[in-house]
Specification:
2 copies of one chain form a homodimer.
Chain A (H helix, E strand, L loop, with lengths): L3 H12 L17 E18 L12 E15 L7 E4 L19 H7 L4 E5 L11 H7 L16 H7 L20 H5 L16 H12 L2 E6 L4 H9 L4 E7 L18 E6 L10 H16 L3 E6 L18 H15 L5
Parallel strand pairs in A: 3-4, 3-5, 5-6, 6-7, 7-8
Antiparallel strand pairs in A: 1-2, 2-4
Helix pairs in contact in A: 1-9, 6-7
Protein name (chains A, B): Esterase
InterPro entries (chains A, B): AB_hydrolase_fold (IPR029058), Carboxylesterase_BioH (IPR050228)
Keywords (chains A, B): Signal
Chain lengths: 346, 346
């Protein structure tokens, strides 16, 4: 974390653009991007039978559907490759999190590819392009199940999400120096979708799917955000196969420091938080738990770090730091850390 | 439709690969792809307030959410550009329809880009990465609304979908000569998601969103499939702005021949069906209506065509012809038609 200027100069050279000063947000158009391979697929999934798939006459109520699969879209750039990175979104969102920002700037999904990393973007199971099961809704509607068996599915309203994303302490107050592009907030709200997490078992089926994906890729950094923060750690507990490192961005939860730390031994782990954390009762305890986890992991032979961005002079970042106006500067920091700790170009 | 061999030779030259014989499915790896610009955004959307967003203590029940927006992902290739194409998926599916096929071959989303067409892939509103509204589920769960107000949301089971997709007349019977990659059917079933169409107003909010998108692109062919077949026609009725043509793949409905044909005057329209249509009671009447529509449109100054693939010697295609083993051959036919009727490279 000591060489952001050098790092940015190297990236700029690779991209053949003028290096921006640290903290400067406008970047020139980067020019064409050459892709060696791209596509999408699913990981996981299981067949379930139901007699309440539909209440419509044109679609049979009984049959088999496939659920718990995880949608994955990927791009592999041409040229020397860095370690693959898998991007795992958080609550009430989809893989769109990592794509074009609300104000139209390049997302990390493309920027990481431009930096040479094969990049995999997932939709958590039961969300986005990963199918949910509507059977319990139709069972209640058909009078075959009580109302209590309806799924637990919620949406986060703009007003409540405001403090969760640390745009301000209460809606519509704004934190001083905030770097989230609030002028484009209407585009951000469009990214939010209903969340069925509370209807799913623990660990979330996304966790074994991430484990399978890491094995298929054969070595990837799992980069989580918020709600998904615990998933890569849970995946490492299932198996270390294919997991080259973990970058946990503003995790909703770190492992408890009293947990077994053996799954994390010698695994490069970076936990990152933005600004204003201590001012938010939802976030301050999470940061404390993550600090304690990092200490416990390292005491057990781990290679864990915690980075609080204001500690290195980067201020104003919201919870959505992949969309803040300095998002590419933060991407550079993370990719530099990944190159140094989890594997550089090969 | 008379020059498939010439067309394929031209494409092969453009891609610098050996031209395959017509009907031959194996194609060599096409090599790197250079993208001038890519990204994602939403079109449409409206704010709604609700007091049943959540039944969980951590998420407020009351607030504002944004719904009815349509997710769009796009890629623009480097080099001379053909007319942009917008791909609109059908029932119980998402934009994944057009991506990597179940058996791992290149999807039309990429192939169209390789043929020089800026390509836009959408998720219909309330599906995939386009948010639904969970308020009515939570209203019933909270005892604030009767069971009848639950949303109408269904999934198509494998067994029932079998005949809808024309894999066979009844599950698991297979049509003779079928070109759908049934060995990979497990991967296809993973693409299917719950469908909220019946909970939405008519026209579906996807229709004005497609109209807005066409205006933003400033000239695009709207290519629909199945359930979405009527949407581009409805969009053209709203406004012709930005609509350079319509390719309707196996539409669930064409406009009625008694409808006002003025919106389609001088608009290039191609309606395409695969094989076995007459053997399926769900599909045969749709083909007949589309034939009558094409005749009515042309009688009113239209430029509409209907293409039944077996009529030009291409047999074995299912309803999912963008995933059948000759999918790129069909793509060539459609892009050749688009180049000739809606605008070639510029």
């Amino acid at each position: 974390m000591r060489r952001p200027l050098i790092t940015i100069a190297c990236i700029a050279a690779a991209l053949a653009v003028t290096p921006p000063a640290v903290g400067q947000t406008a970047r020139p158009e980067p020019g064409p991007l050459t892709i060696a391979k791209q596509g999408s697929f699913f990981v996981g999934g299981r067949d379930v039978t139901s007699d309440t798939l539909s209440t419509l006459p044109n679609y049979a109520p009984s049959g088999t559907i496939t659920v718990d699969q995880m949608y994955v879209r990927y791009q592999v750039p041409a040229g020397p490759l860095g370690i693959p990175v898998t991007l795992v979104h958080g609550c009430c969102l989809t893989g769109k999190t990592w794509e074009t920002t609300p104000d139209g700037r390049m997302g990390w999904d493309e920027y990481f590819v431009r930096r040479g990393h094969p990049t995999y973007v997932i939709d958590q199971v039961w969300r986005g392009r990963s199918a949910a099961n509507p059977s319990s809704i139709n069972a209640v509607r058909a009078g075959k199940a009580p109302v209590e068996q309806l799924p637990t599915v919620f949406s986060a309203g703009h007003e409540g999400a405001w403090a969760i994303f640390r745009f301000g302490k209460t809606y519509p107050e704004v934190m001083p120096g905030l770097r989230f592009p609030l002028a484009a907030q209407a585009e951000f709200w469009k990214q939010m979708v209903p969340d069925s997490l509370a209807s799913l078992p623990t660990p979330n089926p996304t966790v074994p799917a991430l484990s399978d994906l890491a094995g298929r890729i054969g070595g990837t950094v799992l980069m989580s955000h918020s709600q998904s923060g615990i998933y890569p750690f849970q995946a490492a507990t299932l198996s270390r196969r294919g997991i080259a490192g973990i970058v946990s961005i503003e995790p909703g939860a770190c492992p408890e420091p009293t947990d077994d730390m053996a799954p994390y031994r010698d695994l490069p782990i970076l936990v990152v938080f933005g600004d204003y954390v201590d001012a938010f009762p939802r976030w301050a305890p999470r940061l404390r738990t993550c600090r304690a986890f990092v200490a416990a992991a390292n005491a057990a032979g781990g290679r864990a770090e915690l980075l609080l961005l204001p500690d290195i002079g980067i201020k104003g970042n919201s919870h959505m730091l992949m969309q803040d106006d300095n998002s590419l500067e933060i991407a550079d920091l993370l990719l530099d850390w990944i190159d140094r700790h989890a594997g550089a170009a090969r």
